[in-house]
Amino acid sequence: MSSKKFSRNKQEKIDMIYKTFFNLILKQGYHKTSTNHVAKSAKISIGTIYKYFPKGKEDIIRKYFEESMETMLDRDDLINLNNDNIRDFLNHFILELFKNHEENKGYNLAFRSAIQSDNTLHNGHKEKIFNFFKDRAQKLRKTNKNFKEIPEERLIEVFIFIYNLINAILYHHLSIMELFDTDDKLIEYLSDLVVFSLKYLIKS
Amino acid sequence: MSSKKFSRNKQEKIDMIYKTFFNLILKQGYHKTSTNHVAKSAKISIGTIYKYFPKGKEDIIRKYFEESMETMLDRDDLINLNNDNIRDFLNHFILELFKNHEENKGYNLAFRSAIQSDNTLHNGHKEKIFNFFKDRAQKLRKTNKNFKEIPEERLIEVFIFIYNLINAILYHHLSIMELFDTDDKLIEYLSDLVVFSLKYLIKS
Amino acid sequence: MSSKKFSRNKQEKIDMIYKTFFNLILKQGYHKTSTNHVAKSAKISIGTIYKYFPKGKEDIIRKYFEESMETMLDRDDLINLNNDNIRDFLNHFILELFKNHEENKGYNLAFRSAIQSDNTLHNGHKEKIFNFFKDRAQKLRKTNKNFKEIPEERLIEVFIFIYNLINAILYHHLSIMELFDTDDKLIEYLSDLVVFSLKYLIKS
Amino acid sequence: MSSKKFSRNKQEKIDMIYKTFFNLILKQGYHKTSTNHVAKSAKISIGTIYKYFPKGKEDIIRKYFEESMETMLDRDDLINLNNDNIRDFLNHFILELFKNHEENKGYNLAFRSAIQSDNTLHNGHKEKIFNFFKDRAQKLRKTNKNFKEIPEERLIEVFIFIYNLINAILYHHLSIMELFDTDDKLIEYLSDLVVFSLKYLIKS
DNA sequence: AATGAATGAGAATTCATTCAT
DNA sequence: TATGAATGAATTCTCATTCAT
Question: Chains touching chain C at 3 or more Cβ pairs under 8 angstroms?
């Protein structure tokens, strides 16, 4: 019971650190946000931050990313993909990315901001994405005739491109949200865009 | 001749600073690249860097950006736009962005990397883009019937979106270049993509 | 006890910084005394100096000055001033200045040295002196007939002049101390000097 | 003829350097005034400044001081001093100091400002003053009965004190000028003050 | 476990001084 | 002689990280 309480406090603190850190990055940019500043803003001692995140800033981002990737991407939707529901899958995938964007706008922007100034982080991220889609591509080529014809490497590249394209549109300079009346129209546009793009990418 | 040599040295030094700075950013990320490090790598004294760029890193990026924006965007292509050559204009515009990307891949990536960690710079950049397209939108609405019907603000937003979309694809996580056999195919894809997108954006 | 030790260490460090800084200024002059040099001499890390004095040298002097002004001037001697004890008051005031000079010779000289090379500091100092004597002048004019006749502004100016005169003699080029056999004779001289001067200043 | 013109240009430049340097010190304080800044303000190249003043700032002040000391103090007034005209001599001496102050207010303040932050300069100054009054004291003790009784060292000290007292009043925090209606009254006050002070100093 | 004072390497920036032209 | 570009040591200041309490 007491350990439960403790662990809730611990998680609360960790969440507080995430929240404060990413808020500060949004306000000031990554390299102007210091761990000491985070500690002061979050009213948590700098010692505690280093207890939970021994490597400091890098650790905060890496751990947040690991948690959020698990939440966002670690599902088995792709496995059941077949000829008939490619469009459904895409809609579903894009919707997930979009929902994640809406819910974690600040966090994700901060993450991207951080990744840009830290090559280690950037490469870790790329590797993670690559492995994720490599796994999915392999499964797809085993279970789906259409995909068997596409070389594995190409399939991975295409998936990554789609993933990046959607993210780029959602995050890049932030101007897109205001261009569509409703979220549904945006989702529709993005799905159509991906289908449109796939034709070029798969065949070329 | 002696004065010529002087001025050549000056520009050579400035170019050397740009080159070294952006190379280092590409290698190490923005916030790990210090002015002193640039000086040492470029074999130029730190004093010289601060002579030409009194505010340090920020100035290097800002000045490079100003120069490259002028080179890249400051032309009058849009003025001659009429009903018949929208597609030509788009092709031309995308080609320019693409050529700029090819020639200045390192510089531009570094610039984007830097912009992500510096909000002042980021806002300056956004403002510059906005003003550029505001000017173009106003000219277009005066000379072209089709555009007159679109509100100025919307037109600016759409242009910015297109600009960002292309840049996002060209720069975002770097995976696109390997997906197309030839540059022409990439350009074709991008043009088609923009035309495809415009339908959604203008009407919505 | 542990908290006591903490706070004692803190004040000890601050005092050590003051002591070292002013000693170095006395030896080398203000602008040749760097914060790093102070840190090294005081065997305190440069970070600690900036923790307690975030604006560096300027802060050290300003804070010391604020503390010493409070110690030296922030008393209510002037309030009880009446017709009969002007001479006593003067003796007392001069004695205070003199004691302060004796005890803090190094600090005060350093402060004056610093003030000469820093206009911001100088103006802050002048303002502080002015406000101090403005307050005293206002109180005096309310409670003392003789002073009521002297315009407030004039009274402030005269007080400041007296204050500066004494300080100038005590600090300016350091030659006075050796001219008098005993401190009492010096104090007597200074008091007589002020009384002598007041005749000129009040009437003119 | 051409050499004459040159030498006038040279002196003009030197005067321009003095003027600019001391004006900048008055505005910004000594240690914030850089030689490069002087060069830019005076529209004289930094190379030229170092031609005339090879040791930089220190040299500018030292040379100006040497010139101004010669102008101000290098006269034989004291030699003819006798019993009857001590008061006249004092008036004359004070008037000289006062005139110098009026004419070179900026220069002198700057000089004092500079001296405070540079111990070499300060010591040089003290030595110069000491030697000047040593010379005068020796002459006086040879020619004047009254002074013979005062030990040479003491006489020098008293002279220096008087000199410093007047200067302190004239320069110290600048508040005196506004306290007297006319210059004559100020001079009178200063003379009386010195006579008043001498009684204490000579006898003690 | 939690705290936050303390550390010091390293980044940004200045400025006296030199030297090629 | 005059110039001012170039230099780099020295300075100010920041911030990730440690460790005694």
Answer: D
pLDDT per residue of chain B (204 residues) written in tens, 0 to 9: 333 334 447 888 999 999 999 999 888 878 889 999 999 999 999 999 999 999 999 899 888 877 776 666 555 555 555 555 677 777 887 888 888 887 777 787 778 777 766 667 777 788 888 888 898 888 888 877 778 888 999 888 888 888 888 887 887 655 666 778 888 888 888 899 988 988 888 764
Give the number of other Cβ atoms within 10 Å of residue D128's Cβ: 15
Same-domain pairing of D76 and D165: yes
pTM of the predicted structure, to 2 decimals: 0.79
Residue whose CA lies closest to nucleotide F18 C1': A47
Mutate to test the interface with D, among C200, C202, C203 (most CBs of D within 10 A): C200
**Residue A65's CB: how many other CB atoms inside 10 A?**
19
- Cβ contact D45 with chain F strand, < 7 A: yes
Looking at the fold, whether B27 and B68 belong to one and the same domain comes out as no
CB atoms within 10 A of CB C59: 15
What does residue C196 show for φ and ψ, rounded to 5 degrees?
Answer: -55, -45
All residues of chain D having their beta carbon less than 8 Å from the beta carbon of residue C160 are 173, 175
User: If you measure CA to C1', which residue is closest to nucleotide E11?
Assistant: B34
Return the closest-CA partner of residue B135 out of B79, B82, B202: B79
Which residues are CB-contacts of D29 (< 8 A; sequence separation ≥ 6)?
A: C116, C117, C118, C119, C122, D113
Chains A+B touching (3+ CB pairs under 8 Å): yes
- Do B41 and B133 fall into the same domain? no
Domain count, chain A: 2
Q: Are residues A98 and A31 in the same domain?
A: no
Report CA-CA distances (Å) from C79 to C66, C89, C159, C195.
Answer: 22, 10, 14, 19
Nucleotide nearest to D58 (CA to C1'): E16
Contact partners of D by the rule of 3+ C-beta pairs under 8 A? C
The C-alpha atoms of residue D164 and residue D11 are separated, in whole angstroms, by: 31
Q: Do D113 and C116 count as a contact with CB atoms less than 8 A apart?
A: yes
Question: Given its phi and psi angles, is residue B45 left (phi above 0), alpha (psi -120 to 50 degrees) or beta?
Answer: beta
Q: Which nucleotides of F are covered by protein (CB under 7 A)?
A: 1-21
Quote the DSSP letter at residue B31. Answer: G
Residues D12 and D85 in one domain: no
Structural domain boundaries enclosing D171 = 58-203
Of B29, B118, B179, the CB nearest to A118: B29
CB of B48 nearer than 7 A to strand F: yes
**With contact defined as beta carbons under 8 Å apart, do C191 and C91 qualify?**
yes
Cα–Cα dist D162/D168, whole Å? 10
Residues D129 and D185 in one domain: yes
Helix (H) or strand (E) holding D40: helix D35-42
C and D in touch (3+ CB pairs within 8 angstroms)? yes
